[in-house]
Amino acid sequence: MQSIEELQKIIDRAISESQYPESPQELYQPITYLMELGGKRLRPASLLMACNLFSDNISKAIKPALGIEVFHNFTLMHDDIMDNAPLRRGKPTVHKKWNQSVAILSGDVMLVEAYKLMMQVETEIIAQILGIFNDTAVGVCEGQQMDMNFESVSEVNVEQYINMIRLKTAVLLGGALKIGALIGGSSLTDAELLYQFGENLGIAFQLHDDILDVYGDPEKFGKQVGGDILSNKKTFMLISARALATGELNNSLEKWLEHTEKDPGNKVQAVTEIYDQLGVKNLAEKEMMNFAEKAIRALEQVSAETSKKEILRKFAETLLVRES
Asked: In the predicted model, what is the mean pLDDT of residues 144-161?
């Protein structure tokens, strides 16, 4: 069983060796540009890990793993347009470096390229793999739409939020694991258990991200701490706070949600103090661990060697103790 780091290097090498047509430059250069910006390659690495659970030959899973990463970056390219984001991993986003039309069309090609890569599996499982990929892709788009819808509605509950992050974030990790398992020759039961492992882990991962956004170390987190507070983003933290706050505490929270000023640090500090009084961080950590435990229970039921499954367990721990 290969380590996570070894699998990430395999993906990085596959990305660096990928070649696209030279013309039209505006269509293909943005793909190479975005793919080479880096990233942890967690989704394609998880696909390779799942394959490796059942087969020593992971070479047959490299193209589909690359397809997962291309698809993920396609969603980032289009998300950046929707968010009008100026930077991606510290570099200009595609629509800022070129223009919005280029980013839309180049992103469309990335989706096609993802399908071309995903089809490079054994003939007898193509339909099955594409079916999973289709369901995953639609789920991600549904999650993104729900997230955008949340911006214009006043009330969102925890259940709705968990379902949104399940679709936007978690189903891609679950889908990658399920696809990798089937390429490796697993049973449908084991593939589905790995999907459950990935989906629950993905939800826990996003809840941990919510916590880090408020309580993370700015130097380690890699982006502005308190960004969700400043944008009034309806995360688990804010939704829970609004459900729990009463009286003056509720009035104070609502005041800060309506507040804009030159020094955003005041708002971050004030809302964080409200979270502290309400114990929202503890609630988020408890919810995160609930989904993490569901993930591990699913993994334990997978019919694979315990020593091999330990790599996936460590992968889960890495995601949930990270500081960035």
From this structure: 94
